[in-house]
Amino acid sequence: MKPTTKKWTTVALAGLMAVAAAGCGNKANEADLRSGAGEASQAKPTLKSLQIWMKDDYNTYPVAKMLEEKTGYKVQYDMLPQDKPEDKLNLILSSGEAYDAITTLGSVDMKALYSDYAKRGALLDLGPLLDKYGPNIKASLSPETLESAKIDGKLYGIPTSATESAAASLMIRQDWLDKLGLKVPTTTDELAAVLKAFKEKDPGGNGDKNVPLAIKSDAPFVENLAGAFGLANNWNALDGKLAPRVLDPAYKDYVTYMNGLYKDGLLDKEFAINKDANVKEKFSSGKAGVIPMSWSDVPSLTDALKKNQPDAKWTYLPALKGPGGKSGLGMASGWDRITYIPKSSKHPEEAIKWMNAKLDKDTFKLMAIGEEGKHHTFKDGAYTPILPIFADERNQANNFLMGADEKNYPTYWQARVRKDMRLFEAWDYLNNKLPAEVRLSDPLGKSPFLPEFSRNNGSLTAMMNEQTIKYVMGVDGFANYDAFVQKYKAAGGEASVKEVNDWYGKTKK
């Protein structure tokens, strides 16, 4: 059991008694909903909503006022702390504090807490409320999204789906290629040849400081390169099932390739201690020729590079083909966040009506990207922000989402990327210019809560990364691979694989 769950268990028993008592009152509310008594015309109550952390006060942010005008609901917003939000969340749930809506991130740990709360009876079953008051919610969210939030067949939360996109690839110094008369590599073999040329001919003039390829210690599976070996995501399809990278036969091929780069001096000798900042500094200072890079970091990195080397040019590599012809960039999917109603809520049906009103198509668009002509323009099918007002009034609009118009939000979302054209061009290359087939969604993105997987994923990932670094550096050889696999399986890997594939098998029927 995760520490946060233990804490919840310890603290919550007394609170759950209070919650359960409140729940009795809410059973009456649910009965009212079924009978239609909830439709009585009354003044709308002030709702209380607990939100994820953001740097500004929700109550004074322009989106709050807009939503009050459009939905008719005045809302008192509070937010969870930036650090250890689960601690405060556990206290709030155990105390029975009467929030009408609670929104958390959709991360694995928060997904585990959501499931725990539901199983312990602290959350309302939203199914009956959605049937009566949630037509916009049901129309906006796909059945797959809603199904992913069910616990034991009941829906206790409204997920906001993540906007799927390839986040990162390898960035290379185009001016170094030009100086050496080389083309942008398209395969892993060509990349190795380019790195060799970077090492031997030193186009940056770095001498012994020259670093052909720099990566960081907590990401030994390098974006783009891992995909060239069929390992684009943490779990990948293999013979009709899902397998974690370390149990995939391609794992050894990938590690052997990376070990070759390391032995030949093409991979940064300091990669096992590199942090993200070290890698970026090596690139922006002109020492490194290739690094993995997220499109969201392009403006700040290129500003730093231009400051140090005004004539420097860079480009993204395409999805490299590996020895077996595979290629791929991992793509996040699943939940960005989830909203639920605790049984301590004083106004559960009004909370659903409020969330439903936010998903009216016009209101949702106004919330997400503002007014055309004021906050954005629309031309040739593209939304472009008008600055600086878009940044002032809609930059944090995503924190008000409680479910999304899944058909249109990916297009609206692009206005947010166009805040800086360098940002947009980098995102556009990875997500529009490259062939669609190289973008590979995380197959576990929309999985339901999987207790074994959630319990073990963090420790197993750390174990795998640590061992992978040893293989890449040659500290360990594959002679101990079978022993490591047994250790991995015994530490929860085997149970996780079974659980994941029990679920995956059902989704394919």
TrEMBL record:
Keywords: Cell membrane, Lipoprotein, Membrane, Palmitate, Signal
Domain of life assignment: Bacteria
Signal peptide positions on this chain: 1-22
SUPFAM superfamilies with a match to the protein in the record: Periplasmic binding protein-like II
InterPro entries with a match to the protein in the record: Bact_solute-bd_prot1 (IPR050490), SBP (IPR006059)
Pfam families: SBP_bac_8
Name of the protein in its database record: Extracellular solute-binding protein
Species name: Paenibacillus aurantius
Phylogenetic lineage: Bacteria, Bacillati, Bacillota, Bacilli, Bacillales
